[in-house]
Specification:
about 300 residues, alpha+beta, 9 helices
């Protein structure tokens, strides 16, 4: 339980006052001192000044025991009135004593009221502090969980990136990765051989510049599976087959793509050669009046 300390008392969160060990002896000492001085002064017919000593215990009780201040003030006022009646035996002093008693009660109530207000304010502060501590604790735990989750995601991303880097670098097939703006971000050694360019020259280059101008639009239209002519570093043109897959992002779009490239230049040359041979066979068959016998075509193809 939270405890609030004041100069003369302690107070828990419920507003109940717990007096310090020294507060009660001080009150008793001041009461005895005040009444003793009052008796002494009244004995010598001194009727002023001494009453002010009684304010001290009244104020302390109203501060330490606000709920009992009226009872204490009434008892002290009764003792003061009895002294004023029986010691000087001057009835003219009684109205002045009654006025003084009213002042005693007024001071006691004002101090008790201010003490209660202070108690309410301190109790509200304690509640707000506890709420703030609770909120700070919850937010701290939430931040700790978020930080741990971020670290876990970072570790997973780092492991994935390392695995992808190892896969790309060790792959015998040409592989290229580019971002959403078509700038190359990663290539492997096989891709360098296909393009005839070093990785330092490829990274940061727009991938569209690797193809002749008439084919560059294909990079923007479709890249799932497409044949493209690739400009080699030595000035020649390589026929390639691209198989790409988009790299998803957290948003609705994509963060780029990764492509597996096949060099089909030799295959294209073979296809062209086959087409020429087929044309020659068709010409030879027409000139000889052949009906296109398959055995004859195969024989001619073999000799060609």
């Amino acid at each position: 339980m939270s405890v609030r300390r004041t100069q003369d008392s302690r107070e828990d969160i419920t507003g109940r006052f717990i007096p310090n060990e020294c507060s009660l002896p001080i009150i008793i000492l001041l009461v005895v001192l005040g009444l003793s001085v009052s008796i002494l002064c009244l004995t010598f017919q001194i009727t002023i000044i001494f009453q002010n000593l009684l304010y001290l215990p009244i104020i302390i009780v109203a501060t330490c025991y606000p709920r009992k201040s009226l009872v204490f003030c009434g008892a002290l006022s009764a003792a003061y009135l009895a002294l004023m009646i029986f010691i000087p035996r001057d009835r003219g002093l009684i109205p002045l004593a009654l006025i003084r008693i009213v002042i005693f009660f007024a001071v006691s109530e004002v101090v008790a009221y201010l003490t209660r207000k202070r108690t309410e304010a301190e109790r509200a502060l304690v509640v707000e502090r506890n709420n703030l501590d609770r909120i700070v604790g919850e937010q701290t735990n939430l931040l700790a969980r978020d930080l741990e989750e971020s670290k876990r995601v970072e570790r997973a991303y780092r492991d994935t990136s390392e695995s992808l880097e190892l896969l790309i670098s060790s792959s015998a097939a040409p592989i290229a990765v580019w971002n959403s703006d078509y700038y190359l971000t990663r290539v492997n050694r096989s891709f360098e051989l296909v393009t005839g360019r070093a990785a330092d020259d490829l990274i940061g280059r727009n991938i569209r510049t690797l193809s002749p101008p008439q084919f560059r639009r294909l990079f923007a239209e479709r890249m799932e599976s497409v044949e493209l002519d690739l400009l080699h570093g030595d000035g020649s043109v390589r026929h390639t087959l691209w198989h790409s897959s988009p790299i998803p992002t957290a948003g609705a779009g994509q963060g780029g793509a990764i492509a597996y490239v096949q060099d089909i230049t030799r295959l294209k040359h073979l296809e062209e050669r086959c087409r020429r041979l087929q044309a020659e066979l068709d010409s030879a068959s027409g000139a000889s009046g052949s009906s296109g016998d398959p055995d004859l075509l195969q024989e001619t193809f073999r000799w060609k």
